[in-house]
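Aim 2, interim progress. The first record below pairs a target sequence with its structure tokens.
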Amino acid sequence: MKHLCCSNKELTKEFADLAKFLRVAGEDNRLKILCILKDGEHCVCEIVDNLDLPQNLISTHLKALKELKLVESRKEWKKVYYSVNKKTFKKYNSLLTNFLKNYE
């Protein structure tokens, strides 16, 4: 018997999206960055100060988060400010909630 999660193409795409989200957001430093950003917009220099990691490593993590549209950025003069993309988080929250409901 083929499981529903394996037989429906759309559901399989949702699982693939959820798996990618968990891989990207589940990395320790990225979770810390998201924690910092949940309180509002911050520039890279503020994130560096909070995490005590090199700026280039922070930028790499931010790039991964931005590619998945978990964070947004805006440039003001020479500084780049990052914030959480709430619309994307709602999408992944819904996907994860629906997935976990199957195990209740």
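The second target in this work package is listed in the same format:
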Amino acid sequence: MIALADAVLTVHALLAAFIVCGLPAIWIGSGLRWNWVRNRSFRLIHLCAIGVVSLLSVLDIACPLTVLEDWLRTGAAGSQGCIQRWVSRLLFYDLPAWVFTLAYVAFALLVLLTWWRIPPQRRA
């Protein structure tokens, strides 16, 4: 079960990296005229990914990947979200859940603003 939990954690980390790194990639890529940053599918997936994260957080619903990882490791869901748990471990400081909710929503709004400022292109 630990190997499966590690696989879920890896997928979760890759998803978080996609969300976080996607935004600066869009802005930098736009400045450098990289066509792929205006790909509608990429942009829609990126927007939906942070939208789901924000919505789950606002509704106080645990991330399904976090729940699955915790269940695979311990047989029960944990009390913290994945990002909250890792930030706590890295910084040795527990932040309340509302701080993460605020950060997720602010980031989602920034991604939405980016959609407007650097719009994706329709297929030719």
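The chain is about 75% helix and 0% strand. This observation will shape the mutagenesis plan for the next reporting period.
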